[in-house]
């Protein structure tokens, strides 16, 4: 069972990101503050759940959370500041956009930079341990997937509606054949054989 709180604070915010390992599209983060009486037996790390379950959980989380927010950081910025900093920036933006200030922040993973002067704790595999981080992982993943499905319409040859920008064989073959788009991360090694990108 996932736990509700890590700290003794009432307004504890969980944050997580999606899309760190992708070749295209944004890195997306969410921040969620859940109420004290929140319960859900299905809620888990988004990677453990089917797409259908994630889609069902999203409105439930949005309806029951005290506050939630989602933020994208786009490829241009990722290329400028690197993916780790972009992931942290996305989390900061999501926390900043919450309608209330959290008293404590729990973060999935092991890297974070202090946000304002709010105390925080990084938790390895936090999305499998705490409900608010799991909820954030689901919002980040579903909002990012929606974004990738939308840009798929523009460039269907990369099949982003299926691979969501991850480095599948099909995605890499499409990069070989069609080159890259404005949605690709130019600082990433987009092809295994790539040493420099012909721009």
TrEMBL record:
The alphabetized list of GO BP terms reads:
DNA replication, removal of RNA primer; mismatch repair
**Where does this polypeptide localize?**
Cytoplasm
Q: What is this protein called?
A: Ribonuclease HII
Q: Which UniProt keywords apply?
A: Cytoplasm, Endonuclease, Hydrolase, Manganese, Metal-binding, Nuclease
What reaction(s) does this enzyme catalyze? Endonucleolytic cleavage to 5'-phosphomonoester
Tagged with keyword Cytoplasm: yes
Q: Which family does it belong to?
A: Belongs to the RNase HII family.
Record-annotated RNase H type-2 domain positions: 10-199
| Class in the EC hierarchy, top level | hydrolase
Query: Which superkingdom heads the taxonomic lineage of this protein's source?
Result: Bacteria
Where is it mainly found? cytoplasm
- Source organism: Bizionia arctica
EC number(s) in its UniProt entry? 3.1.26.4
**Entry-linked NCBIfam families:** PRK00015.1-3
Q: Which cofactor does it need?
A: Mg(2+); Mn(2+)
Q: Which GO cellular component does the record give, naming just one?
A: ribonuclease H2 complex
């Amino acid at each position: 069972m996932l736990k509700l709180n890590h700290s003794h604070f009432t307004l504890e915010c969980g944050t997580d990101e999606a899309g760190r390992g992708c070749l295209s599209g944004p890195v997306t983060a969410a921040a969620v503050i859940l109420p004290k009486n929140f319960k859900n037996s299905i809620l888990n790390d988004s990677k453990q759940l089917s797409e259908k379950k994630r889609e069902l959980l999203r409105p439930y989380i949005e309806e029951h959370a005290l506050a939630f927010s989602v933020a994208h950081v786009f490829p241009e910025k990722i290329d400028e500041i690197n993916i780790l900093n972009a992931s942290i920036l996305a989390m900061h933006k999501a926390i900043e956009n919450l309608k209330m200030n959290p008293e404590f922040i729990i973060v999935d993973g092991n890297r974070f930079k202090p946000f304002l002067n709010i105390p925080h704790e990084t938790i390895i595999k936090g999305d499998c341990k705490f409900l608010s981080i799991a909820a954030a992982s689901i919002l980040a993943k579903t909002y990012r997937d929606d974004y990738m499905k939308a840009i798929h319409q523009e460039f269907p040859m990369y099949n982003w509606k299926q691979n969501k920008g991850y480095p599948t064989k099909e995605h890499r073959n499409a990069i070989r054949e069609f080159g890259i788009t404005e949605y690709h991360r130019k600082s990433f090694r987009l092809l295994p054989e790539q040493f420099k990108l012909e721009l």
